[in-house]
Amino acid sequence: MIKGFKDFLMRGNVVDLAVAVVIGTAFAAVVKAFSEGFIGSILGKLGGQRNFDDVAPGGINIGTTITALISFVITAAAVYFMVVVPINRLSQLRRRPEEETPVVVSEDVALLTEIRDLLAQREGRA
Length: 126
What we know:
- By secondary structure, the protein is mainly α.
- The protein is built from 4 helices and no strands.
- It has one domain.
- Helix 2 (about 10-45) packs across helix 3 (about 65-95).
């Protein structure tokens, strides 16, 4: 039972997933700091407030949702431009153009093709 658990832990997928979670958590902290510090400062200068948490038109608090949506868009853009685009470029560079392999025709097929072409020529003259 312990050996099976050890095998499970040492599989590549589990280790890759653990690394992804750790890196994702660290990346989320960086993006959160960027969105709250940098983008929040820009929004504060433009709109007078750093976040929208206190926006409540008609008593309905929609500000937290607006802040979460802005944070989501910033996170999605950061992931796309910092992870997806470079990975796609690397995969395109690693892909080698497929070389065209010449079609190998057996002697029988070559002979039958030649006979067909000669018969077609003969019928064209007749």
